[in-house]
């Protein structure tokens, strides 16, 4: 409870927040604010809270952020350490040998398990409203507000977690637009009962790079294990240069099998075991330019951008969800004790001051890495292979380590 400074009469009221968007970032932020004593309204445009399909890699920075949000125990129950590391050519030759540093490795979680954990963390101070398509933002007056054309939600704090096509970002930063990153990605989880049994000498993990193509795989739990995810299997991600494919999933899967037909084992086996219903296609987009601000003081509080609404970028470093969790942990820290008025306005500004430089650095590393990973043409591939072999610690390992080095604010 906080003093109601708007009336000046000493009446007490609870600080209020509206979170727009119930993706992983919005759920994390809503739960974090509620556990900090805020009354939270969560607005979601879908008719119910839905988990994304397939799985996610969460790097050490994302794990630290979830722990700072009080979700470390839930994460530990669903996460599997990913035996990732190393880069190969399609023929299986190593360009970068695997790293064996467990402290730098990510964990892999099924999106449905993560969604359940985040929803369980919302508590009873979050009012969930589904089927709400936010169409307007008001930044004049004592408090910011959003509306769907019929109802208006006013609060001390508005959190825009409404994704790469964020209406709130377009209202505040209209020059920051979502553009194609020049590639598309496909993800799938092959459940254990259909997953191929791999020989002991075949490594599942790391990534493979070809002419504009990329493939990453990881084990989601262990076959027959009752631990970690109950939705276990083998998770893979394939990336190809070019636009998203409009064909049905069965046709897209046939294309993937053809594109990766002569790649080293077990890539062909994984694609053969995948069914069209497993496949999830993601057009890869990014914000150009990135918004100039992530925090906007308004009235007694303000508006903040979070997750893809603030810094959507390609998945080359696998940092999308991790950065959203960092945003949520930083927001919780900056507004934790802030009273609406000058304190909360300053906290909104502090959030942007902390988050934007971090996002800019990761985006810069991501673009540099993407230019190498998406090389096409014989000469470009030769240069890429030579670069990876000679500069791997500086280009790949250090890029990943730098991105994962973040720690929550005190």
Report a brief summary of the structure.
The chain is of the alpha+beta class and 410 residues long. It has eleven helices and 21 strands. It has helices at residues 24-35, 60-68, 72-78, 111-120, 167-172, 249-259, 267-273, 308-311, 320-335, 342-373, 378-403, and strands at 2-3, 12-13, 16-20, 39-44, 55-58, 80-81, 87-88, 94-96, 107-110, 126-130, 136-138, 145-147, 152-154, 157-160, 177-191, 207-209, 213-220, 233-241, 280-288, 295-298, 301-305.
> What does the oligomeric state look like here?
single chain
Round the Cα radius of gyration to an integer and report it: 22 Å
The shape, in one word, is elongated
**How much helix is in the residues?**
25-40%
Strands of the biggest beta sheet: in what spatial order? 8-7-16-17-18-15-19
CATH class: Alpha Beta
User: Total strand count, please?
Assistant: 21
Total count of domains: 1
Helical stretch tally: 11
What's the rounded overall pLDDT mean? 88
Task: Kindly report how far apart the N and C termini lie.
Answer: 23 Å
Q: Could you say what the CATH architecture is?
A: 3-Layer(bba) Sandwich
CATH topology: FAD/NAD(P)-binding domain
CATH H level, superfamily name: FAD/NAD(P)-binding domain
Biggest beta-sheet profile = 7 strands, mixed
Describe how the helices and strands are arranged.
Elements: E1 2-3, E2 12-13, E3 16-20, H1 24-35, E4 39-44, E5 55-58, H2 60-68, H3 72-78, E6 80-81, E7 87-88, E8 94-96, E9 107-110, H4 111-120, E10 126-130, E11 136-138, E12 145-147, E13 152-154, E14 157-160, H5 167-172, E15 177-191, E16 207-209, E17 213-220, E18 233-241, H6 249-259, H7 267-273, E19 280-288, E20 295-298, E21 301-305, H8 308-311, H9 320-335, H10 342-373, H11 378-403
């Amino acid at each position: 409870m906080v003093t109601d400074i708007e009336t000046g009469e000493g009446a007490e009221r609870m600080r209020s927040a509206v979170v727009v968007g119930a993706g992983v970032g919005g759920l994390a932020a809503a739960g974090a604010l509620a556990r900090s004593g805020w009354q939270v309204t969560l607005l979601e445009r879908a008719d119910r809270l839905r988990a994304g399909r397939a799985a996610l890699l969460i790097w050490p920075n994302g794990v630290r952020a979830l722990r700072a949000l009080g979700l470390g125990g839930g994460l530990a129950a669903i996460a599997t350490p990913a035996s990732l590391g190393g880069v190969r050519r399609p023929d299986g030759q190593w360009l970068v040998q695997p790293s064996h540093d467990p402290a730098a490795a990510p964990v892999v979680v099924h999106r449905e398990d993560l969604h359940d954990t985040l929803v369980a963390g919302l508590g009873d101070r979050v009012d969930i409203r589904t089927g709400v398509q936010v169409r307007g933002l008001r930044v004049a007056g004592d408090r910011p507000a959003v509306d769907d054309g019929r109802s208006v939600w006013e609060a001390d704090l508005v959190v825009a977690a409404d994704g790469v096509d964020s209406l709130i970002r377009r209202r505040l930063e209209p020059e920051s637009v979502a553009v194609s990153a020049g590639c598309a990605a496909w993800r799938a989880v092959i459940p254990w009962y259909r997953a191929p049994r791999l020989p002991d000498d075949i490594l599942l993990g790391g990534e493979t790079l070809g002419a504009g193509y990329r493939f990453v795989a990881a084990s989601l739990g262990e076959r027959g294990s009752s631990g970690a995810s109950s939705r276990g299997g083998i998770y893979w991600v394939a990336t190809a240069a070019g636009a998203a494919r409009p064909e049905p999933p069965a046709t897209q899967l046939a294309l993937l099998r053809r594109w990766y037909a002569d790649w080293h084992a077990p890539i062909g086996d994984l694609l053969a075991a995948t069914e069209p219903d497993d496949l999830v296609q993601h057009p890869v987009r990014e914000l150009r330019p990135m918004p100039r601000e992530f925090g906007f003081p308004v009235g007694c509080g303000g508006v903040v951008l979070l997750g893809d609404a603030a810094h959507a970028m390609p998945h080359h470093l696998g940092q999308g969800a991790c950065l959203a969790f960092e945003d949520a942990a930083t927001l919780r820290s900056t507004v934790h004790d802030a009273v609406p008025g000058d304190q909360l306005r300053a906290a909104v500004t502090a959030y942007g001051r902390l988050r934007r430089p971090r996002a800019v650095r990761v985006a810069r590393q991501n673009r540099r890495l993407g230019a190498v990973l998406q090389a096409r043409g014989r000469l470009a591939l030769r240069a890429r292979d030579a670069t990876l072999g000679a500069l791997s610690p500086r280009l790949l390992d250090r890029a990943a380590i730098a991105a994962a080095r973040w720690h929550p604010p005190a």
